[in-house]
Write a structure and sequence with these properties.
The chain has nine helices and eight strands. An eight-stranded parallel β-sheet has the order 7-6-5-4-3-2-1-8. The model has no long low-confidence stretch (mean pLDDT 96). The chain binds pyridoxal-5'-phosphate. Pyridoxal-5'-phosphate binds next to strand 8 and helix 9.
Length: 224
């Protein structure tokens, strides 16, 4: 079987496993433009990258109808590169970054959609706001300060563990927070995206109501 056939097979199986209404973001970090193009040729349009430099290098050489999701930790100094490109910025972790995104969006006269990243894992290394910080930020959201930013929902990453119960409990907590914050959001009907689940914890995330999954290895194979 050719690489292209293998990719098509994995893509078809993954799509069949996703409930209606769940967006699949193909995480293409470390993948070549040719690999991304192969999935684009199958009709896929949502791709996720988590390094600003890598996204900046790939975006100009790939089709312009790709919706790029920035799923990594966005440094303020990189916002000026990412705001012009991103369809959705998943990793927003506070007011200083929102100020920088707003400034860049204003310069381009464009709106930009974001998710707040919430720290739900036990690992120290994962970025994001605590649930309490996320709640405070939504409650105090200042549409005059961030008029061009659309607050679309939450993103989180579970602990990397074989304990499926723990993973599910972490996703459950994020889903509960999402439900609690939705009515408090500046535009509740647009606060509609719950980004959780990747190759290793997809069933747990879907069981807890994820409507956007970020999948790399289960689509493209192991990263080299
Ligand atoms: C790499 C990455 C993924 C995808 O991970 P896989 O295990 O390859 O599916 C999802 N989300 C984020 C934030 C990532 O950095």
């Amino acid at each position: 079987m050719s690489d292209a056939d293998a990719l098509a097979g994995r893509y078809a199986r993954l799509k069949a496993a996703l409930p209606a209404g769940v967006t699949l973001v193909a995480v293409s970090k470390t993948r070549s433009p040719a690999e991304i193009k192969a999935l684009h040729d199958l009709g896929h349009r949502d791709f996720g990258e988590n390094y600003a430099q890598e996204l900046r290098a790939k975006q100009p050489v790939l089709p312009s109808d790709i919706r790029w999701h920035f799923i990594g930790h966005l440094q303020r100094s990189n916002a000026r590169h990412i705001v012009p490109i991103a369809h959705l910025i998943h990793g927003v972790d506070g007011a200083p970054l929102l100020d920088e995104i707003e400034k860049r969006a204003a310069g381009l006269e464009r709106a930009v959609d974001v998710l707040l990243q919430v720290h739900i894992a036990q690992e120290e290394t994962k970025h994001g706001l605590s649930p309490a910080e996320a709640e405070a930020l939504v409650r105090e959201w200042d549409t005059a300060r961030w008029p061009r930013i659309g607050l679309r929902g939450l993103m989180g990453m579970a602990t990397l563990t074989a304990d499926e119960g723990q993973v599910r409990a972490e996703f459950h907590g994020l889903a509960q927070l999402f439900g609690r914050l939705k009515p408090l959001a500046p535009a509740p009907e647009r606060f509609d995206t719950l980004s959780m689940g990747m190759s290793g914890d997809l069933p747990q995330a879907l069981a807890e109501g994820s409507n956007l999954v970020r999948v790399g290895t289960a689509l493209f194979g192991e990263r080299g």
